[in-house]
Amino acid sequence: MAQDWREEVKTEKPYRKPTGQRRGLVIVNTGDGKGKTTAALGLVLRAVGRGYTARIFQFMKHAGAAFGEHRALERLGVEIEGLGDGFSWTSKDLERSAALAYAGWRRAREAVLGGEYFLVVLDEITYPIRYGWVPLEEVLETLRQRPKKVTVVLTGRGAPEPLIELADTVSEVRKLKHAFDAGVPAQRGIEH
User: Fold this and answer.
1) If you count Cβ atoms within 10 Å of the first and of the last residue's Cβ in the chain, which end, N or C, has fewer?
2) Contact (Cβ atoms closer than 8 angstroms) between residue 108 and residue 120
3) DSSP codes joined into one string, 143-170
């Protein structure tokens, strides 16, 4: 007679219940794979669905962008602000790009420190940090000084090691395969 499947079910949990207090987190989504921003937007949906406030700053998207996520978030009442002038590798004026990034950082910093939002997303902030347009130490100090209830999600490739060390949660999205490498261009509803 075959053993009953219920005898094989383990009753022990594979983890211990955390004993710490709930608080705002620093979450970093980095790596060369697709999905870092998408994961951050998923957290925005979860927070807004629970009645919390969220705000998104996109460091590489230009002001007035109307990508799919902008349209959907506008319907949900979530503020999303493009701070840049597009992708830096197509910029014809890198000094202007740097000035826009830093001015945007100052607005984002105010939102993080102001405590009005439960969740603040700093999308693609690793690029202006790596280019030297936004000082890493200012970002780290802002994260340390933020109100305890505020969660900040930072996205982008090549997150610097000091940011990874400061973060509570870090996910690396690794590319195994991407349609773009096979010649498929970015598509509405998928990449933008």
Assistant:
1) N
2) yes
3) HHHS-TT-EEEEE-SS--HHHHHH-SEE
Q: For each of the chain's 192 residues, which pLDDT tens digit applies?
A: 556 666 666 667 777 888 888 899 999 999 999 999 999 999 999 999 999 999 999 988 766 677 788 888 989 999 988 877 665 555 667 788 888 899 999 999 999 999 999 999 999 999 999 999 999 999 999 999 999 999 999 999 999 999 999 999 999 999 888 887 888 887 877 776
- pTM for the model stands at 0.86
Instruction: DSSP letter for 80, please.
Output: E
- Name beta bridge partners: 151: 119
Report residue 182 as tokens.
Answer: 């096979």
Q: Supply φ then ψ for residue 129, to 5 degrees.
A: -65, -50
Q: Which residues contact 139 (CB under 8 A, 6 or more apart)?
A: 105, 125, 129, 154, 163
Walk me through the domains of the chain, giving residue ranges and CATH numbers: 22-174 (3.40.50.300)
